[in-house]
Amino acid sequence: MGKDNVIINRWLSQKDRFADLMNGCLFQGQQIIQPEQLEKIDRETDLFIPEKSGTQMIPGKGVQRYRDVAMRWEDKAELAILALENQERVHYAMPVRTMIYDGMSYAEQIEESWEDRKDTGGRASRDEFLSHFRKTDRLYPVITLVFYYGSRPWDGSRDLHGMIFPEGAGYEKENLRKYIPNYRINLVDAERLQDINVFQTDLQYVLNMIKYRQKKEKILEYVEANRSYFQRLNIDTYQALSVFLNSEKWLEGISIPEGKGEVDMCKALEEIYEDGKADGKEEGLKEGKKEGKIEVLKEKISKKLQKGKSLETIAEELEESVETISRLERELLESDSTEK
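Above: the chain sequence. Below: its structure as tokens.
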């Protein structure tokens, strides 16, 4: 797992932030999931494939997957598994990837339920023994959000059918569609979320920063308008912003004061912005001087051409390459023809 992914996983695995993201996306901001109702669960998922149902497992025939963030949500008698898959880049096989993760979570539930029933005793029918699942057993839902924070719009399939049936598929394939169960991903495209106000925690501030990340001036305006928050930015959020705003390299110039757990982003961004303006002015002056020298050179070339000198002779006298003199001569001719 890369460093950036570790930072985002750690930031979104904070229970209050995780609950806020789920409430905003699943319940339009209603505070249904409470942080204290969440329990972090092992992100590692193992599924071993039996040779035949009810017989021993085949050595080495296993599947292992790691979710980015996973929580068990328990509200009274209700239970669900809530998970996040964080993506910086478009994953064109995401419907299959999430289908595998969710399917393995359901398979784990079946095995856990069967083991629990074995411990409590009670006879099972032949069909139940074959299934490792009793007729009266029930699974609890598994919900996975794909949190995509890339810069370009998601252009991958959002469901399994999109991966199987291309646009304009023939009659035979279209007829098969109704026999193939679909699997849809719950995509959260961070930069293009419409209603960010449904979020109640600092997730709202960060999502607005992602929204403005291509416009430095907009970011500065937003930070200035929310100084009370950005003046005391905690380190985890600062590091997450560094990942989310990767296209804005200037953010990396913000230094963290030694021994402090907070960053004053307002002051740091103002200083970086002022340095950028100064660099721009200096670059402009250099460019202006360069253009001035070219104009002087063109004037000298024009006078020598009027005297009938060859390009080779002019290049030698002005200590420039023949290619440069030839290019500037063409520009002079084009300029003359435009004026006429």
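The radius of gyration is 31 Å.
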